[in-house]
Design brief:
about 300 residues; 18-stranded mixed beta sheet; globular; Diaminopimelate Epimerase, Chain A, domain 1
């Protein structure tokens, strides 16, 4: 049987930038084992398989696979799939703003599609889960050794390593500058010993020193447990990053915005737009969005 798929780059305006994504818009008939095999064959950060929604009021149901495993939520697959479904007219885009609900294992994900002349130009998700703070991470000494850095390369006061999840847990490690971010190299043997069984085994490194004048954060992400050596753009981490940053911001009421750059050291520059709403000092909503571009399309013929 043949299954149509689309390959796009997410969080970029140009092909060969951003984070690659493969979307199968009609995946009915594929088993879990077969979807995992397909994801391993494409061997990119995530591959998405789209099914009819379990709740008829919703738009579609997504199953998201890394090369190693299925995950409950991911950002660039969510906004990228919404882009593809709008682009191929699987979702009617009758107005400049179309709101849909995508089902993922974590729950229902609201997504907004901004379009022009019937074509999507920007997609944005709203996190279904507000930030959850995890257990204390390993010591700064261990984290520095894990990343091939000196302890002085890590920020350790107000901004310090912290584990947060908005559906997928990440360990956020703030660094002093771009030089520290660039020279970081993950020592896998230490990761296996110290972080592989930790509440948040995926590492998100960031600094307030950026490449672009409009950016506020420059970042890198390592997730060896998911089969991802380094990710060029991580929407699920960006939602949790908003929790990290917003809790440290003194704003009581209003919307905070950060432009996050990622993937620059990989040759796949990515731009993520991150927002957090606060009311009476509490985070009430987090959104992550960006642009996507179609790279290619094809058919995969397999025996189920």
């Amino acid at each position: 049987m043949s299954y149509k798929y689309y390959w796009c780059d997410v969080f970029t305006e140009e092909i060969f930038g951003g984070n690659p994504l493969v979307v199968f818009p009609n995946a009915e008939g594929l088993s879990t084992a077969k979807m995992q095999q397909i994801a391993r064959e494409f061997n990119i950060s995530e591959t998405v398989f789209v099914f009819p929604p379990k709740n008829p009021k919703n738009t579609r149901c997504l199953r998201i696979f890394t090369p190693n495993s299925e995950i409950p939520f991911a950002g660039h697959p969510t906004v990228g799939t919404a882009y593809i479904l709008g682009l191929i007219s699987a979702i009617p885009l009758e107005n400049d703003l179309t709101k849909i609900i995508l089902e993922e294992k974590i729950g229902e994900i609201p997504v907004s599609i901004i379009s022009k002349n019937g074509k999507p130009i920007y997609t944005q998700l709203s996190a279904s889960q507000l930030p959850e703070i995890g257990k204390n991470p390993p010591s700064v000494n261990i984290l520095a050794e894990l990343l091939s850095l000196e302890t002085t390369d890590l920020l350790q006061e107000k901004d310090h390593p912290q584990a947060i999840s908005c559906g997928l847990p990440f360990l956020f490690i703030p660094l002093v500058n771009q030089n520290a971010l660039k020279k970081a190299q993950l020592k896998r043997e230490i990761w296996v010993k110290e972080l592989s069984n930790y509440w948040a085994p995926h590492l998100f490194l960031f600094t307030y020193e950026t490449e672009l004048p409009n950016s506020k954060i420059s970042a890198r992400m390592f997730a060896p447990g998911l089969g991802i050596d380094e990710d060029p753009a991580t929407g699920s981490a960006a939602t949790a990053l908003a929790g990290y940053l917003a809790t440290r911001d003194r704003t009581v009421d209003g919307t905070l915005h950060w432009q996050v750059e990622q993937g620059f050291f990989m040759g796949r520059p990515s731009i993520l737009q991150v927002e957090a709403d606060k009311k009476q000092g509490e985070i009430t909503e987090i959104r992550v969005g960006g642009t996507s571009v179609l790279v290619s399309e094809g058919k995969l013929t397999i025996n189920n």
